[in-house]
Amino acid sequence: MLEINFKIFPVLETERLVLRQADLNDVNEMYAMRSDAEVMKYIPRPLSTDVSEAVEYIKSIDERMEEKECINWAIMLKGDTKMIGNIGFYRMALENYRAEAGYMLLPEYQGKGYITEALNRLIDFGFKDMGLHSIEAVIDPDNIGSMKVLEKCGFVKEGHFKENEFYDGKFLDTVVYSRLEK
Length: 182
Known about the structure:
There is one protein chain. The chain is of the alpha+beta class. It is built from four helices and eight strands. It has an eight-stranded mixed β-sheet, sandwiched between helices.
């Protein structure tokens, strides 16, 4: 099984971004994303209706990191402290050297290549620093923007699963993309 240690949280950088641990100072931005119907359009989770839900979400990420179930970063523009999005490995199967990547971005920062840049850095960290063998992303088949990002980052479509998730009274399809460490 893959052994990881996040006692010292890894801060990652790209040309334009800093990826750091999300904390309670990010609660307003986290709430803005998780309460925005457009941001959450392809994520089968209920919209946040109160800032306290964002506080609980950040706390749950910290707890899950302690249990080595996930690791999550706040995305910031270099030279700024405001979180503009988040990215991370939301599910880690360390026994299989595999993790699932996920991300979201505030609407005003979308379409500028930030997620592609952050995801490429996350992939590099996952393979080189964590020792992962494969990274997957599970997305809604209608999320064309995310498909394009994943393909730009070298992911390959592995499968389209019909009605394999039940959410909000209906069955939903998912598409799995993955990338192997080469």
